[in-house]
Amino acid sequence: AAAASTPKGSLYPRPRADQHDVRRYFVTRPGAFDQAVEDLKAHVVETMGETAHSFWLLTEIDHWNNEKERVVVVTDLALLICKYDFIMLKCLQLQRVPLNDVDRICLGSFTFPERSLDRREGEGLRIYWGKQQEPDFLSRWNPFSTEVPYATFMEHPVKSSSQRFNDICEISTFVSQLVPAVQNVRMKDPARTDGVRVEYEPLLIDTYTGLMSFIGNRNKLGYSLARGSVGF
Question: So where does this one cross the membrane (predicted)?
Answer without folding.
Answer: none
